[in-house]
Amino acid sequence: VYIPLFRNIQNRIVSIPGWSYNTSRDTTDYVFPHLNTSLIEPNTFDMENGVFLLIVVCSAAQNFYARQTIRETWGNSSEFNYPYFPRMHRNFHGKYLRANITRWRDFFHEDVPSQSSHGDNATEEVQPVRMKVIFLLGQTPNNETQSQIVSESDVYGDIVQESFLDSYNNLTLKSVMLLKWVSNNCVDRVRFVMKCDDDVFVNVPNLLHILLGGIVPVYNDTLSFYDLTNLMATRKRTAMVEPRRLLMGFLFCRAKPIADVTSKWYSPIYMYSGTTYPNYLSGTGYVMSTDVLSMLYNVSLKTPLFHLEDVFLTGICAHRVGLKPRHSPLFTYTVVKNLCAMRGMITQHPLSPDDIRRAYDFVTNTTIRCPPPDVHFNTKKVLGRSKFCK
């Protein structure tokens, strides 16, 4: 019994639930690109004036508390918006590259009073950026859960529910449905789209600052995530200059398919026959420009489905259209030891809803000062951390 099992593991022969050898992997068999497959859509989605950033949170149907936590914390775009950026980093004033506000002025709220950016003595005024946060769900076989989702949507108007069964092995379908919904509803009125999971904390002001062409200041507690390429917080050459063909997150390089059938990342050879994946971004959170979203959606409809959504979309599909995912150390999927690290990062994963609340309370408490790198810090210490992706 042991020897065949060992061979199956080594040869990646064992199938995975829902995607047997004979199951169709034609994306169009599930996505139906020419049909409206949404069961629920947002009813408060005003896109008339354009949106700079749309964050789509992929959430399991039953995760009501996780969604409510996000609404009350980092997903509250009327509170946790760009004016919070200079407030969070007020003791770093002048030590980071500012955003190119002029370039993106059409995406700022003109009808909202400006907020002081550097405390009581500030001379710079910052307005909120137009952005939206919505949740993407699949179907649930539980009628009571479905009834609660309908009620939740009636109250908040921020849910997209698509017609596929929500499960881990269907996460690729969920992400392609995300691309489909944006493509069919608002791609021409949105500048950037972020995909993330509902167990992620997103430092929205930091993300906005990066997309606006600025650089987030480096904290002592974020040093371990940086390499020398992106350590210089005031150099324009490290900022995002061209907002097109952007696909950015935490980059995995030269990863190999996992042959252990007990792993949730197990990859059968009939679904992926290669020995190494194309470089891809962690699916916990990544951001793209909408030209990239359209490219990925179109090519995904012509590419055999692969059950690991981050590998499929940001690796396989991106590679097919000549896109190179961009690494940012500010996207992380490892738990930090000190909450001060949250001040200088974009994503933190995995976190429980209560941990997300704690992170939000800490980040928005501007009376807490988090230290910069020590004045004697030697940049040579990070030389060995440079990403080896080419």
Describe this structure in words.
With 390 residues, the chain is an alpha/beta fold. The protein is built from 11 helices and 12 strands. The longest helix has 15 residues, at 171-185. The chain starts with a helix and ends in a 27-residue tail after the last helix. 43% of the residues are buried. This is Hexosyltransferase. Keywords: Glycosyltransferase, Golgi apparatus, Membrane, Signal-anchor, Transferase, Transmembrane, Transmembrane helix. Its main location: Golgi.
Explain briefly what this protein structure is.
The protein is of the alpha/beta class and 390 residues long. It has 11 helices and 12 strands.
What is the level 1 CATH name?
Alpha Beta
Number of domains: 1
Residue-averaged pLDDT:
88
Q: Give, in order, the helices and strands.
A: HHEEHHEEEHEHEEHEEHHEHEH
Biggest sheet: strand arrangement:
1-6-5-2-7-10-9-11
The name of the CATH architecture is Alpha-Beta Complex
Query: Biggest β-sheet, characterized?
Result: 8 strands, mixed
Considering DSSP H and I runs of 4 or more, what fraction of the residues is helical?
25-40%
The CATH topology is given as Spore Coat Polysaccharide Biosynthesis Protein SpsA, Chain A
Would you count the extended β strands for me? 12
> Structural class of the helices, strands and pairings?
alpha/beta
Strand percent estimate: 15-25%
Give the low-pLDDT segments: 1-9, 113-123
- Specify the overall morphology: globular
| Euclidean distance between termini CA atoms | 43 Å
What's the helix and strand layout?
Layout: H1 2-11, H2 28-31, E1 38-40, E2 51-58, H3 64-72, H4 84-88, E3 115-116, E4 125-126, E5 131-139, H5 143-156, E6 159-165, H6 171-185, E7 190-197, E8 201-202, H7 204-211, E9 247-252, E10 280-289, H8 290-300, H9 309-320, E11 326-327, H10 340-343, E12 347-348, H11 353-363
Parallel strand pairs: 2-5, 2-7, 5-6, 9-11
Antiparallel strand pairs: 1-6, 3-4, 7-10, 8-12, 9-10
Helix pairs in contact: 3-11, 6-8, 6-9, 8-9
Subcellular location: Golgi apparatus membrane
Organism: Phlebotomus kandelakii
Pfam family, one: Galactosyl_T
